[in-house]
Write a structure and sequence with these properties.
Blueprint (H helix, E strand, L loop, with lengths): L2 H25 L5 E5 L6 H12 L8 E5 L6 H8 L7 E5 L2 H8 L9 E9 L2 E6 L7 H10 L5 E4 L5 H13 L4 E4 L3 H9 L5 E5 H9 L3 E6 L25 E7 L4 H15 L2 H9 L3 E5 L1 H21 L5
Parallel strand pairs: 1-2, 1-3, 6-7, 6-8
Antiparallel strand pairs: 3-10, 4-10, 4-11, 5-8, 5-9
Helix pairs in contact: 4-11
Length: about 325
């Protein structure tokens, strides 16, 4: 083959390669993608997806629509996603509630009916009160609970959630009795705390950040292994209460989801986590980047599900 022929062949191959790449990119995504949360508006899951969608602009070339499907402690949202087409246009913003609900109640679908796509963050759990509260630390709460057994109203999200589990664990570790009160989501809980309907709440910092800045809410501590980078508040462990609970935030689709769409989202999540504007936001609300691809995320969910089952049995929620 002559030199000119080789050049011609390479040019044709390059054009064909570019055409195939363009065609591959055109296959997905080509229409709006729905991001489903079981949280009510203003709750942590809702805020996670809305901010993720906002910062994916310019990375994902189609509109991202956040859809709230509260109810059934996540089972309504999970069923919707599990029964959606497998083409990658419906994704679920998951938290440990995805795992906990099917353990403590019979549900139509579980995480096994979904395809892990990627984990994005670990979200530190915090304990907070309204600013008018006399309590300045978890030690104050424990002392008050000892003086008023069963009367402190401890607000948390849906039954079986990480927040609800923390309420049980505080009672066990501190040897106190409180009155756990559950809500459909963190937004509803925040309103209840501000209104004095519950005495304190467990949630994510993103849910209360604006009220902290406005001086209406005070964070007492986190339930993390180590102090959250940049945070002024201590951990429960620092205060003598070794309570550590991890809350993941990731994306899943229907089981059997198009592998091309899964790979697309793995790339998109890695890219958005490097975006300076997004980094500035997630660091301001103490979200900890914890990227896992779909294989790593599946293994993590399996391990976490086993751990949660053992823990819920230990505290008497299940047999």
């Amino acid at each position: 083959m002559g030199r000119n022929a080789v050049r011609l062949w390479l040019a044709v191959a390059l054009v064909l390669g570019l055409s195939l790449t363009a065609a591959g990119q055109a296959r997905y995504p080509t229409k709006p993608i729905v991001l489903v949360t079981h949280s009510s508006p203003g709750a942590g899951g809702d805020l996670f997806l809305r901010n993720l969608a906002k910062h994916l602009e310019g990375i994902v070339p189609v509109p991202l629509v956040v859809e709230n499907r509260p109810g059934g402690a996540s089972s309504r949202a999970v069923t919707y996603v599990a029964t959606s087409p497998k083409d990658g246009y419906v994704l679920y913003g998951a938290t440990p509630t995805l795992l906990q609900t099917p353990i403590i109640a019979k549900t139509p679908h579980s995480y096994l009916d979904l395809q892990p796509v990627a984990n994005v963050f670990f979200d530190p759990m915090i304990l907070y009160v309204r600013s008018a509260s006399p309590w300045r630390s978890l030690r104050d709460v424990v002392e008050a609970a000892k003086q008023r057994p069963g009367q402190i109203r401890f607000g948390a999200a849906t039954p079986g959630s990480v927040e609800h589990m923390i309420a049980h664990e505080v009672q066990k570790v501190a040897k106190i009795q409180v009155q756990p009160v559950t809500f459909e989501g963190g937004g509803d809980l925040l309103v209840a705390v501000l209104g004095g309907h519950v005495d304190l709440g467990v949630g994510e910092y993103a849910e209360v950040a604006s009220q902290v800045q406005a001086g209406q809410v005070r964070v007492l501590n986190s339930f993390t292994e180590r102090r959250v980078p940049g945070a002024a508040f201590p951990t429960a462990k620092e205060l003598g209460f070794p309570i550590v609970r991890e809350k993941f935030r990731g994306l899943l689709g229907p089981k059997g989801m198009d592998p091309e769409a899964v790979a697309y989202w793995e790339r998109a999540i890695q890219q958005v986590l490097r975006k300076p504007e997004y980094r500035q936001y997630y660091e301001s609300v103490y979200l900890v980047p914890a990227y896992m691809d779909h294989v790593q995320f599946r293994l993590y969910l399996d391990r976490t599900n086993q751990t949660l089952r053992r823990y819920l049995k230990e505290i008497g929620v299940i047999r």
